[in-house]
Design goal:
Elements: H1 14-27, E1 33-44, E2 47-59, E3 64-69, H2 75-82, E4 90-95, E5 98-99, H3 105-115, E6 116-120, H4 131-141, H5 147-157, H6 173-185, E7 191-195, H7 203-218, E8 222-226, H8 230-235, E9 238-243, E10 246-251
Parallel strand pairs: 3-8, 3-9, 6-7, 7-8
Antiparallel strand pairs: 1-2, 1-4, 4-5, 9-10
Helix pairs in contact: 4-5, 4-6, 5-6, 6-7
Length: 263
């Protein structure tokens, strides 16, 4: 893991990030993430609803992507599929060439632990554990050695080397989210999946978290941010905008086209 320099609080320039994303995509192979005609159905009041309706997309290694859409658009369902928290009813999903769309729940759990780091809006830290102990958890679940040392290293990366023994209630909201990001990267996953990562933060702390994501992206990490915030969508070089379970638009963020609302 490489250390992150703590940065200023200004929002990154989207154009600079977009040019880098284009170079990454041009140099990439078949894609780190690939879905083909993914469908997910639910029964609501006896009526079948297609939360995802034939979603096909490719995300290359090293991309920084926003997934956006209004309430009911399917973006949360897509996040669950991409995060291996759920499986599609039909269609294919590949991570680094491995078909994960038809795996059983225990197999999906192993994929999540090995390949995916999660960052949630509500941090999801255990309140009676220190920062180091919270960050250790994915390593302990995976049976990895030297968990405490790796957890300390991850906390140094996110700028919390002086908060190793602090419990969540001794940290600010921004610091808690940094602990959550350290936990997400400690296993060196292929994908970081962040669900509304600045939703519980003030604007200053939110900018700091976005700057941290920018730096992790510049180090080559693949980051997907699920959000309804148009400013976060504009921060990302690529936006996948969902509507009615389909990909409405996929490309550089466009002002005024980002859908608002939660899902």
């Amino acid at each position: 893991m490489r250390p992150v320099e703590l940065m200023t609080h200004t929002t990154p320039e989207p154009a600079r990030l977009q040019s880098r994303a284009g170079a990454v995509a041009a140099a990439a192979g078949p894609g780190l993430i690939r879905t083909h005609n993914v469908v997910k159905r639910y029964l609501v009041g006896g009526t079948e609803v297609r939360a995802l309706d034939g979603v096909t997309l490719t995300i290359h290694e090293g991309e920084l992507v926003a997934i956006t859409g209004s309430s009911g658009s399917g973006k949360s369902t897509l996040m669950n599929i991409l995060g291996c928290l759920d499986s599609p009813d039909s269609g294919d999903y590949f991570i680094a060439g491995e078909d994960v769309s038809k795996l059983k729940s225990d197999q999906l759990a192993r994929i999540r632990n090995r390949r995916i780091g999660f960052v949630f809006q509500s941090f999801n830290l255990l309140p009676r554990l220190s920062s180091v102990e919270n960050v250790e958890l994915p390593l302990l679940y995976a049976g990895r050695h030297h968990a405490a040392a790796k957890a300390r290293e991850a906390l140094e990366i996110v700028g919390l080397g002086d908060r190793l023994d602090h419990e969540p209630n001794q940290l600010s909201g921004g610091q808690r989210q940094r602990v959550a990001i350290a936990r997400a990267i400690v296993t060196d996953p292929a994908i970081i999946l962040a669900d509304e990562p600045t939703g519980n933060l003030d604007s200053r702390s939110g900018d700091e978290i976005l700057k941290l994501f920018e730096t992790l992206h510049q180090q080559g990490r693949t980051i997907l941010i699920v959000t309804h915030d148009p400013d976060i969508a504009a921060f990302c070089p690529r936006e996948i905008n969902m509507r009615d379970g389909k990909v409405l638009r996929d490309g550089a963020p466009a002002a005024g086209l980002t859908a608002h609302g939660g899902d």
